[in-house]
Write a structure and sequence with these properties.
This protein is of the alpha+beta class and 314 residues long. The chain has two domains: 157 residues, DNA methylase specificity domains (Adenine-n6-DNA-methyltransferase TaqI, Chain A, domain 2); 78 residues, Alpha-Beta Complex (Adenine-n6-DNA-methyltransferase TaqI, Chain A, domain 2). Helix content is 23%, strand content 21%. The strands form seven sheets. It has a five-stranded mixed sheet. A four-stranded antiparallel sheet has the order 4-12-9-10. A hairpin with a 4-residue loop joins strand 14 and strand 15. Helix 2 packs across helix 3.
């Protein structure tokens, strides 16, 4: 792989690209296979196939639905297939999910006659990094768009030489693996922290050599000298503001706005939407400082009650 200063560039409709790269219509090289709309009778608690919805791609849904329905193999995704959302939260690109996918999702399949020209792993990284920009025109604020699938005939792909596609995919996959390792480490650390918290403040194991007294509020013994208070007596609890509804409030946004979908299983929020100063003023929103503790008090039951720390002012 060459450094930038070793590469010759050419001007194209989307700017400069390396001289030996090509720009092609995506539909000339790949098929966008649409998912299904199962009837309500197809849903089963223990169906044959997991049903993959847009929320499963975006992480906004954690619940699983299973269906019993006969479909051709093209409508079934395996863990190596690229899935893209064109409904709901648009432009999510994921791999690693198995099952039948919904009509708001497209599965990407390289055309048989183009198999020798396109590396599938490179295709994944290309769409993951450019798809939202192609759909929304370089607007980071937008996440939804009516009839987003209408953009499919206009999508482009860059075609470096096949050997270079492979090297690009290898490098990016390496860093992606490192990120996954870090996430698993965070999960282990979080479980360890919770185990220590339970040992100290629920089971009181480090204090067993001291004197204990019975707490009427908790219905159990606690170390002598400890007090039991309602949370509102020792901290100030405030509700967050309503999410801006108009797209104009996201144009030129510089103020992080944290939604329920941004709360993770990890201690810190990982991302946020961005709103402009007019939205802050119009909705009378308050800025919370980095390090503030936030928790979910509404939404899906499986993610209800998540507690996170703000890693930035928001």
């Amino acid at each position: 792989m060459k450094f930038r200063w070793e590469t010759e560039f050419k001007e194209t409709e989307i700017g400069e690209i390396p001289k030996d790269w090509e720009i092609k219509k995506a539909t000339e090289y790949v098929d966008f296979i649409r998912g299904i709309e199962p009837g309500s009778k197809s849903y089963k608690n223990f169906g044959k196939y997991r049903f993959i919805r847009v929320g499963n791609l975006s992480g906004e849904r954690e619940d699983e639905v299973f269906i019993d329905i006969e479909v051709n193999n093209e409508k079934i995704a395996n863990k190596n297939d690229i899935l893209i959302s064109f409904d709901g939260t648009v432009g999510i690109v994921r791999k690693g999910l198995e099952g039948i996918f919904s009509s708001g999702i497209r599965k990407i399949k390289i055309k048989q006659e183009k198999m020798q020209e396109l590396n599938y792993e490179f295709l994944y990284w290309f769409f993951k990094s450019t798809l939202k920009y192609q759909i929304f025109g370089f607007s980071d604020e937008k996440t939804t768009l009516a009839h987003a699938s209408d953009s499919i005939p206009y999508l482009k792909i860059f075609l470096p030489p096949l050997s270079e596609q492979s090297r690009i995919a290898t490098v990016l996959s390496y860093f992606d693996d490192l990120i996954e390792v870090k996430k698993r480490q965070n999960e282990i650390l979080e479980k360890t922290a919770m185990a220590i918290f339970k040992s100290w403040f629920i089971d009181f194991e480090p204090f067993r050599d001291g004197e204990f007294v019975y707490s009427e509020e908790l219905g159990k013994e606690i170390p002598k000298g400890w007090e039991v208070k309602k949370l509102g007596e020792v901290v100030k609890i405030e509700s967050g503001g309503s999410a801006p509804q108009k797209e104009e409030y996201f144009i030129g946004g510089k103020n992080p706005f944290v939604r329920v979908k941004h709360l993770t299983n990890y201690p810190c929020v990982e991302e946020a939407d961005f709103i402009n100063d007019e939205a802050v003023k119009q909705y009378n929103l308050k800025l919370y400082n980095e390090g503030s503790i936030i928790f979910q008090r509404s939404g899906e039951s499986l993610s209800f009650g998540r507690v996170n720390i703000l890693p930035f002012n928001a």
